[in-house]
Design a protein that fits this description.
Blueprint: E1 2-10, H1 13-28, E2 33-38, E3 53-59, H2 62-70, H3 75-83, E4 85-92
Antiparallel strand pairs: 1-3, 1-4, 2-3
Helix pairs in contact: 1-3
Length: about 90
């Protein structure tokens, strides 16, 4: 199992709502899922930039995560997420 951390600052709520409708299915296509997502945070150390939403994603392995990120059939879904605001996704490992 490998994890990815996603942070999103939403500037287009309509696009984010549309993305949420299709994101789970897109992740599942490559064995991924949202482990948790929240808009509430407790800073433990430092002064991080606080996104509107953070999520912890899981994938069976690194290859599955990369396949999800680079799947040409999911390009419209990734574009929808990007159009919702600033999104950064980090693969942990």
């Amino acid at each position: 199992m490998i994890y990815a951390y996603a942070k999103i600052t939403v500037t287009n709520p309509e696009a984010m709502a549309q993305y949420r409708e299709v994101a789970g299915e897109a992740l599942a296509r490559h064995g991924g899922k949202v482990e948790t997502a929240t808009a509430e945070f407790t800073v433990l150390d430092g002064t991080p930039e606080r996104p509107d939403v953070s999520a912890l994603l899981s994938f069976p392995d690194k290859d599955a995560a990369l396949a999800w990120a680079n799947d040409p059939e999911l390009s419209d879904i990734h574009a929808l997420r990007r159009s919702s605001g600033q999104s950064d996704i980090l693969l942990l490992g």
